[in-house]
Amino acid sequence: MNLNLAIAILLVAVIYLMIKNISLSHNIKKEQEHEKLKQSFLANLVHDLKTPTNAQLSTLQMLNNETFGRLNSEQREMISLTHKSCKYMSDLIGTIMDTYTHDNGEVHLQKKDFDIIELVEEISEELKSLYVHNHQKVEFRKECAHYIINADKLQIKRVLANLLTNAITYGFDNTIISINLKIYNNSLEIFIKNVSKQIPEKELKTIFDRYQKTQFAKYNKTGNGLGLYLAKRIIELHEGNIYAKSFDDGTCIFGFNIPTSLDSNPKLVSA
Length: 271
What we know:
This protein is of the alpha+beta class.
């Protein structure tokens, strides 16, 4: 009798586990289908937004160049503000599209030799209007005059531009932002240091996750939380590591390291 009862209990347990397993498999399949539909909708939406946004930027640029007639100061100011808003939207669309392609494995690195120091200086110059507006100063601290590496220049530029823009945006006014470049035997490290509100430890652990934003972000309501996530994906594709640190004195550091070259020896020219 006890043996029959034990067998019955075992059968019930097996049937229960089978039902749970079927239910779990069904739920996973539904979630996968839902995620696929969501990604497809997002890709189509972003694609449809890209064309009119680019058309608006082109039209605004022509207006600003006075292609259709002279502008007074008030008209020029309004066009300039509208152009900045459209440019922000265009950058946002680009970031979402880049994230989608990275997540779907559609990105393949286009590696070539280039001067990483020249690239850093180029990005710093492109973002000069931002840090000048905040009364900030950007200093580039490097160990040599030129350093040639083999990597995807466009993708590395995305990472550097994102990290420097964040440092400028969240950094206090009238402070120094430093871009630091360190060279090791087989790797390169670049980290950007600024002074801002301290980021809590729990946020540092997830700050590179998709759609994560620090609660202290000045533009928290408009940021899409994808920039740092995309930067992480790019650095990982280069077999590198990205990190963030924040200290009690307000010093914040965002940086990454990558192998200097996977195919050939990097070329170093001393200062």
